[in-house]
Amino acid sequence: xxxxxxxxxxxxxxxxxxxxxxxxxxxxxxxxxxxxxxxxxxxxxxxxxxxxxxxxxxxxxxxxxxxxxxxxxxxxxxxxxxxxxxxxxxxxxxxxxxxxxxxxxxxxxxxxxxxxxxxxxxxxxxxxxxxxxxxxxxxxxxxxxxxxxxxxxxxxxxxxxxxxxxxxxxxxxxxxxxxxxxxxxxxxxxxxxxxxxxxxxxxxxxxxxxxxxxxxxxxxxxxxxxxxxxxxxxxxxxxxxxxxxxxxxxxxxxxxxxxxxxxxxxxxxxxxxxxxxxxxxxxxxxxxxxxxxxxxxxxxxxxxxxxxxxxxxxxxxxxxxxxxxxxxxxxxxxxxxxxxxxxxxx
Length: 346
Known about the structure:
The chain is an alpha/beta fold. It is 38% helix and 11% strand.
């Protein structure tokens, strides 16, 4: 089965693509002209092989689509007329009730239900969320990602996952850099504490690698619970303690790169993805591409080559080496663990 290709709307946030001076200018223009924003995004996707869209924070989110088209059903029709469809929607931490303390669970659930209802109307079935961010290393008092913290997060995830399941929507968690679901240990702990019927995983190959982890190993361990994955490349693991504030996404940007230009083992990743419930979708994630058509075509080509290797020799990688980071099949340097502005990415 050939998967469909998808991308996050963040791909289209680069100021140069809109002939504007800054990310803020893009947000302001798109807020004033949501219909024009969406029509250009759709028309640009028509020049690529990408047919799936992941919604995200403004200007490429649910509220913007509603302002542009009036309803989820009208948005769906506009997409369908171009051979496009919504795949998922990402909930940015800044755009939703705070999970850190979990004091307002009804508001958290209500926000998720509103998003799930929209997704159901568009024909999509996946809500992607993240866990709260860590604090800057050395901050006093210290914040620990321990069993007690993860138990609270699991309790909230269960409530949200059960609520959105009533709309036919799955809740999956994204492995964001510098969040409390970043390191391999974080992912394993959270998944162990959550019910697989209500909580799914959306691993991001880049972000896992940025934390010094092995994306392929993570994907293999949790394959039965992967509803979607973000295909994205990393230059190298983040080798310093970043300041976790509004600038952390920009600080992470230099460590990210286009598919095939970094350290991710795409053949291993494609093989692991082929064993998951989310195998039918390949979501190419690019942050603010100045030339989205060229970038998406290049990313799609890398994914196709990796998928072709899997199809030619399905599941023949040795178990002893299946999760081992290797030289990128396209151009990358070796991945050595522990080696030494972007907007929030799903």
